[in-house]
UniProtKB/TrEMBL annotation:
Pfam families: YbjQ_1. Belongs to the UPF0145 family. It comes from Amycolatopsis taiwanensis. InterPro entries: UPF0145_dom_sf, UPF0145_YbjQ-like. This is Heavy metal-binding domain-containing protein.
């Protein structure tokens, strides 16, 4: 079993067969053929499919009926469960000696009574040429960019540091009867304010993670509101993207050449 970040025995056996120093190394990957080609073109080779999971009792938190407010316990639970899955995926990549993980997917499946399955999956890769590819914490980089976008990022003189994320579970105040009757047409201020506030909290937390990695910026940002089981007045905003750094200051991007059709 996976306990406190340890890798299960079955996973260790699978990973040993994929290590480059094994007798018969065999990689696995969920990259498409086009992604595989561009990752190789970028100077990286796949080592194997890596994953981490966390089965988490998210629970429920009471909120005041008529008040906008963050549900801090739920925000922490949703973040912590994802972080456990990501950390365990990175641990598998470490066993393979990977420099990073590309095309990461982070999925949630809610089950009965607040029980949720969090899983992170991606393809561990290693650079053909030695370099400083790991992040400042000494861990393999993670990125949710596709193989094509990973290649383009490197062509632009940047490298991924890690997937960064922020989450906020927020309770939106209920309207009283007279307020609902008056708001037949027009903006509903408490909904606007609540959703704006929740998005800002998620974005700020994602940016704080990027600053901890000493990133220059975040690319491919997605701001999601995944459907959960809490009801219409409780929502989660989840911000996620890939923090990046410059490879060198003097990098220049080659201009694409225009190819004219031959005239018959």
């Amino acid at each position: 079993m996976t306990v406190h970040g340890a890798i299960p025995d079955n996973a260790m056996r699978r990973l040993r067969h994929m290590r480059p120093d094994s007798a018969t190394p065999l990689y696995t990957s969920d990259l498409s053929v086009n992604e595989f080609l561009l990752v190789r073109e970028a100077g990286f080779r796949p080592l194997g499919l890596v994953m981490g999971t966390s089965i988490y009792q998210v629970g429920f938190q009471l909120a005041r009926w008529g008040r906008n407010q963050e549900l801090g316990m739920l925000s922490w639970a949703m973040y912590h469960a994802r972080e456990l899955a990501m950390t365990r995926m990175q641990a598998e990549a470490d066993v393979l000696g990977a420099d990073g993980i590309v095309a990461v997917r982070l999925n949630i499946t809610f089950r009965a009574a607040g029980l949720a399955d969090f899983i992170a999956v991606g393809t561990a890769v290693k650079a053909d040429q030695p370099g400083n590819w790991r992040n400042n914490a000494g861990k393999p980089f993670t990125s949710d960019l596709s193989g094509q976008d990973f290649w383009t990022l490197l062509q632009a003189g940047h490298a991924p540091l890690g997937m960064v994320m922020g989450t906020c579970v927020y309770h939106i105040a209920h309207q009283r009867f007279w307020q609902a009757m008056r708001a037949q047409i027009g903006e509903i201020p408490q909904f606007t304010e609540a959703l704006y506030d929740a998005r800002e909290l998620a974005m700020a937390r994602m940016q704080a993670e990027a600053q901890q990695l000493q990133a220059e910026g975040i690319v491919g940002v997605k701001l999601l509101a995944p459907p959960h089981y809490w009801g219409d007045h409780i929502t989660e905003f989840f911000a996620v993207g890939t923090a990046v750094k410059s490879l060198r200051n003097d990098h220049s991007i080659a201009k694409p050449q225009l190819v004219l059709p031959l005239m018959g």
